[in-house]
Amino acid sequence: MRVVGILIAFVATLCASVSAQDLVYYFPQIADGTAGDQALATEFTITSASGEFQTTVTLSCYSDNGAAWVADLYSVDRPDAGGFKSSTTFTLGRYETVHFVTRAIDELAVGWAILTASHPVLASVSYQSVRTDLTPVRPQWVAGVLPTPATVLALVDANVSANDLAIGNPEVDVGFAIANPNELAADVSVEVLTRTGTQAGIEHVYVPGRGHAAMFISELLKNVAWGGRFHGHVRFACDIPVAVLALKETTLGGSIVYSTLSVTPWSELLRRAVYEREDNSTFAKAQPIAAPAEIIGKSDSGDADYFSFQIAPEDIGGTETRSCTFSTPTMPTPWCWIRP
Residue 270 is inside which H or E element, if any? Predict the structure, then answer.
């Protein structure tokens, strides 16, 4: 049975408002300090995406055990917001950008950070490593990451090789960090699967409430027979949402370089985006969609938008007309009719 849904978007007048709940951005790893001849620093860049509202932002840092971590948040852009502190709250103007950097003054320490914002922001973190035994100091590597959503299941590629296939046959490993944004402790299973999908090994990582853990895949799963070259993937699973970050470590000729790996929440793999077209203004031109789906777009012309989708007869019930709600951030009050 094929039915047609009519999505009618009513254009609402935008007005200044404050979100009932702040937007949350997780950074599962931050590092600052020196260890031997190496210095590590973390840079935060935060930009307001709003051209209409001021945005209230709070950046909070936590240590491995979940306690507040007093970090060196140095800022030339906004010295009023920077300093040695575990949390800083400030206001961004329209499209304003603020940059913070830690300066590797003390011994190396690691933790994680939460960023909350009253309106959407563009936020990223980059890690920088430099050699301090050289004059002038010499950069070794820089790796940038975007915020990581909290999820109960995340996947990442696993490459643990003594002699990888890349140029020069480097040694490769995967480092990961887990941040627990919950008050409850998290028991995270870390399962490694081979290239063909069979389980190579599984271990558990305990992360206290608001806490953090970081290690290498090969360090955690010591009993896995990695061989000379292992390519597969890792599944991080937990009964409460946690945020996961992963970096690839490449060692060649005495140099170590870290690069960003994509960590994908399971929900992203199930997501299907449908982009609304402006030519779907009649039943004949109805745009086909299949659930689950997210409709992305906006109805600038104000015309009715038609979408066709498959539905089972038992989902309708007789000859009744049912209503349904679409969740579309760009359409303030969308709704539709389903006709059997």
Answer: helix 266-270
- Nearest CA to 141 out of 260, 26, 58 is that of 260
Over its C-alpha atoms, the chain yields an Rg (Å, rounded) of 24
Distances (CA, A) of 52 to 11, 12, 119, 120: 18, 16, 10, 11
Decide if 53 contacts 129 (C-beta within 8 A).
Answer: no
Compute the distance between CA of residue 241 and CA of residue 152 in angstroms, rounded to an integer.
5
Q: Answer whether 250's CB lies under 8 Å from 170's CB.
A: yes
- Mean residue pLDDT of the chain comes to 83
Structure-block tokens of residue 228: 């000379």
Cβ pair 82, 74 in contact under 8 A: yes
Q: Got the DSSP string for 101-155?
A: E----SB-EEEEEEEEESS-EEEEEEEEEEESSSSS-EEEEEEEE-----EEEEE
The pLDDT tens digits for 111-158 are 999 999 999 999 999 999 998 888 888 889 999 999 999 999 999 999
pLDDT, tens digit, 9 for 90 and up, residues 217-234: 999 999 998 989 999 999
Query: pTM to 2 decimals?
Result: 0.76
Low-confidence ranges of the chain (pLDDT < 70): 1-21, 270-278, 290-304, 309-340
User: CATH: 3.40.50.10260, 3.30.110.70, 2.60.290.11, 1.20.140.10. Which one for 23-145?
Assistant: 2.60.290.11
- Do 164 and 172 form a contact (C-beta atoms < 8 A)? yes
User: What span, in angstroms and rounded, lies between the C-alpha atoms of 217 and 246?
Assistant: 10
**What end-to-end distance do the CA atoms of the chain give, in Å?**
8
Question: What per-residue confidence (pLDDT) applies to 173?
Answer: 95
Q: Which fold has domain 151-269?
A: Hypothetical Protein Tm1070; Chain: A (2.60.290)
Backbone angles phi, psi at 217, to 5 degrees: -60, -45
DSSP 8-state code for residue 68: B
Distance separating alpha carbons of residues 325 and 328, to the nearest angstrom: 9
